[in-house]
Amino acid sequence: METIFLDANILLDFFRFGPDDIAEMEKLVTLIKEKEVRLITNSHLLNEVARNRSKVISQSLNTLSGNKFSFAPPRICDDTSKIKEIRKKISDANKLLAEMVLDIKNHAEAETLAADKLISDLFSASKHKAIGAADVEKARLRVKLGNPPGKPDSLGDAIHWEGLIQEAGGFASIISRDADFASPLNELAINPFLAQEWKGKYNYGCINLYKSLSSFFAEKFPDIRLSTESEKNELIEQLERSSTFQYTHDVIEKLSKHKFFTNAQVARLFEILVENNQVSWIASDEDVRSFYLSLQDKAYWVSTLYEEEIAKLLDVDKDDFFMPF
Predict the structure, then answer these.
(1) N or C: which end of the chain has fewer CB within 10 A?
(2) Which are the contacts of 163, defined by CB distance < 8 A and separation ≥ 6?
(3) Cα–Cα–Cα angle for 224, 208, 171, rounded to 5 degrees
(4) What is the pLDDT of residue 231?
(5) Alpha carbon of 167 to those of 4, 8, 12, 137, 302: distances in Å?
(6) Are strands 2-6 and 171-175 parallel, antiparallel or unpaired?
(7) pLDDT digit string (tens) for 34-75?
(8) What is the C-alpha to C-alpha distance for residues 167 and 169, in angstroms, rounded to an integer?
(9) 71 and 87 Cβ atoms separated by less than 8 Å
(10) pLDDT per position as a tens digit, 2-28
């Protein structure tokens, strides 16, 4: 499971002209629900987003409002039949733009923007840390000593770092456009001081930096597609409801065409193997067995309550099959 921290500038990008679109946020929510990603947040981050939200939206709306459509043809066009039609359509487009800006403003005031719901879902699904006086004091000492991340007059990044290094558990990624997390020699790499500090706490751990959600997904989850995940989940539900051997074979054939399954999907598939006799009774059939054996790399997500029965059904050694490494 990937552990990540999303900086406030990434979350606020969904209210402005950021590099990621809403679909990237929806993808992240899906990955959290599917137990592929663990998101770490804290109370200071929540307050930081809430504190800056209205200002960022206002700036975006001002920029949007300034993008009025215009048309300045040369005089030779004055007597053409199309000039009035063009001007009318431009006027209509500007009216639609003004209506859209007003509509967005109303949703922003009501906190019903798509980004509002997604950010709320993210915070609800995250591992959340309350920031207390001790955390602030650690951050203050860090800034006073001149250690990254952060600026001399700000504790925010230092608070985030202190919280993350306590909660991450060894391997984590920071997604931030903030240069304070980056190496002075390479803006795409984590600051060497932070990397060394991380190693000091987690001997075999690693901390990475990404500038956007899309770059994180491109490296860690290149095969993830929202439409495909919906399709796979529907097939898994069909397998769960299977009432005949032939139906089971048909669904297994469709599932076998997919090469990537999330941790949560793998856990569900193995539960179905044990609990639905239209699957378990033909577990030794070549197609069914081959499909389940192909899921071995994530079999450690299966509840230990099912391991012995699964090993019998698939004719495998329990310890070998469910050993994560």
Answers:
(1) C
(2) 40, 42, 44, 129, 131, 135
(3) 80
(4) 87
(5) 11, 18, 23, 17, 24
(6) parallel
(7) 889 999 999 999 999 999 999 999 999 998 888 888 888 887
(8) 6
(9) yes
(10) 899 999 999 998 888 766 677 788 888
